[in-house]
Amino acid sequence: MRADLLLQGYKAADGAVFTGMSRRDPSLLVGVGVKYTTPVGQFWAETGVDATGNSKGMRSEVGVGWRISTDSAIGKWTFSPYLSAQLNNAKLTNYYFGVSNSEATASRPAYQAGSATNLNFGVSAVTNITPSVSLLLGARYRYYGESIRLSPLVDSKGSIGGNVSLLYRF
């Protein structure tokens, strides 16, 4: 079992491009996933549906990653580069990136978004600070599927994301 919170929602006050748009709330995707680790790398597949009912959509993803461990002057690190393809069905994509006829303006035409396959390229890194505390770092680039790139709400071909986390083991 797995759950992913999509914080892609917005309200009209979030920017000029959203003026006159109906509010889009976050979605909670609930589903299943499987991972398989081999000497060559780790493979995974997961799928989930929107449990909030906001988008009434679903997302599926398949990916592959590798683990590279190092022992250097700055400590022991494990790096995990990965590639994945993420399919958002038309309902999920249209909820966040579509523009209804009532939301359309002269500068923002109506747009019915179809399904979109995003490509993700990223790397995560982890090192132990103490036996019970680890530092986790991550960075990724998401190349948007065509249905998202063509949306009048989107002005780029992709997005960059990152995270910094501390993990404490009890």
TrEMBL record:
One of its GO terms (cellular component) is cell outer membrane. It is found in: Cell outer membrane. Keywords: Cell outer membrane, Membrane, Signal. InterPro entries: MipA. One of its GO terms (biological process) is peptidoglycan biosynthetic process. PANTHER family: MLTA-INTERACTING PROTEIN-RELATED. Belongs to the MipA/OmpV family. This is Outer membrane protein.
